[in-house]
Design brief:
This protein is of the alpha+beta class. It has helices spanning about 70-100, 170-185, 205-220, 260-280, 285-300, 310-315, 320-330, 340-345, 355-365, and strands at about 1-10, 20-25, 30, 35, 40-45, 105-110, 125, 145-150, 155-160, 160-165. Strand 5 (about 40-45), helix 1 and strand 6 form a beta-alpha-beta unit. The relative contact order is 0.10.
């Protein structure tokens, strides 16, 4: 059935977006969840925010809800969050399915996770079943095909002169980023979870994983400044802002288990965005490049599975291997964009046939940390 709802959509606006009436195909509505084909979105905090009414899913975002508003508007904000997440995840899954020519495995999104465990959590993560977790342990084993968990929210941002509670379910950037991890898990499989036992999956992400997730987010939002509205206080030239148009090169890549993969991932996301812009500047639909990226991820997931685990994992960390996979995917469709892609990647210090450390060292000798920046 067609569900009529309201959600934040991308647009020229500060804050979470522009409030629009939207439609999407659904299967069922419960008191605390929406069920779509291949997708379940539920608020795990109890109560009946949706009131099981499939005829009216147009709720008030109520400035994000949380401690900013009384109980009534807070329930409206919770209901809005369920609908907002369902709309964006369904849209992203449709996009990925179209590029991959096959649907991804089922996905569950749980909102309000880990509430009451000390400091409020205002982020999100993508979880697979595991014997242990580096943070925020799970009381219920996640679904084998993967789950997105969104926190109850934390912090306040200024939007159009007012205050907006930072509820992750209201933030399409967080939602799309986590969806990006579902895409990579079932394509590139950077941690080779398909070879691990079902309840001992690896959840730690690599820079390629984090960078790809940010790229998916930017494509779906239509902007490279994916976290701009709630990280406006972070300088655009800081990797913490995670702007894809900042032009980061391998000169800033560090590597190692002590480095936040989100930070090193900015090099990969920036490179992908630069190549996408180059493709568009050449007069080609950038969706063709998106397809090469996702199909390339699929190629990475299917090679090296018969190698020793350590060797296969090492190759899945190399930016050069990911580039090679994207180029091979493009060659399958004629290869017309291969030279554009190679030149754009090379400008960021990424070429085929080298380790990340080799790319970093070459880049530090020849290329500035930021494209367009004056080399020191």
């Amino acid at each position: 059935m067609t569900m009529r709802a309201r959600a934040w959509v991308s647009g020229e606006a500060s804050g979470p977006g522009i409030l629009r009436d939207v439609e999407f195909d659904g299967v069922a509505v419960g008191d605390d969840r929406l069920v779509l084909e291949g997708l379940v979105v539920e608020d795990v905090r109890g109560g009946s925010p949706l009131m099981a009414d499939a005829t009216d899913l147009c709720f008030d975002p109520a400035a994000g809800g949380g401690p900013l508003v009384p109980t009534g508007p807070r329930e409206q904000a919770r209901a809005f969050g369920i609908v907002n997440v369902a709309f964006h995840v369904a849209r992203g899954l449709d996009w990925a399915t179209g590029l991959l020519s096959s649907p991804l495995p089922p996905l569950t999104v749980k909102i309000g996770m880990h509430e009451g465990r000390g400091k409020r959590w205002g982020g999100g993560h993508y979880r697979l079943p595991s014997a242990e977790y580096s943070s925020l342990p799970e009381d219920v084993v996640p679904a084998a095909t993967g789950e997105i968990h969104l926190g109850p929210g934390a912090g306040v941002a200024t939007v159009d002169g007012g205050r907006y509670f930072l509820a992750p379910s209201h933030n399409a950037a967080i939602v799309y980023h986590e969806l990006g991890h579902h895409i990579t898990r079932h394509t590139a499989d950077f941690r080779l979870n398909r070879l691990r036992s079902a309840n001992h999956q690896a959840n730690h992400k690599t820079p390629l994983d984090e960078g790809t997730a940010d790229f998916v987010c930017a494509v779906m939002l239509g902007t490279p400044d994916i976290y701009g509205w709630h990280r406006a206080h972070v300088p655009s030239t800081s990797q913490a802002r995670r702007r894809l148009d900042a032009g980061w090169t391998m000169a800033v890549f560090r590597g190692g288990s002590d480095v936040d993969p989100h930070t090193d991932g900015t090099v990969w996301s920036s490179t992908l965005w630069g190549a996408r812009c180059a493709v568009e500047a050449a007069g080609v639909d950038p969706g063709r490049f998106d397809g090469a990226v996702l199909r390339g991820l699929g190629r990475m997931g299917s090679v090296g599975v018969d190698e020793p685990m350590g060797e296969a994992l090492r190759h899945r960390r190399y930016f050069s291997e990911a580039l090679q996979a994207v180029l091979e995917a493009e060659q399958e469709r004629g290869g017309a964009l291969a030279s554009v892609i190679e030149r754009s990647f090379a400008a960021h210090g990424i070429v085929v046939g080298a380790t990340n450390a080799e790319l970093r060292d070459r880049c530090r000798r020849r290329v500035a940390p930021l494209l367009g920046a004056k080399a020191s």
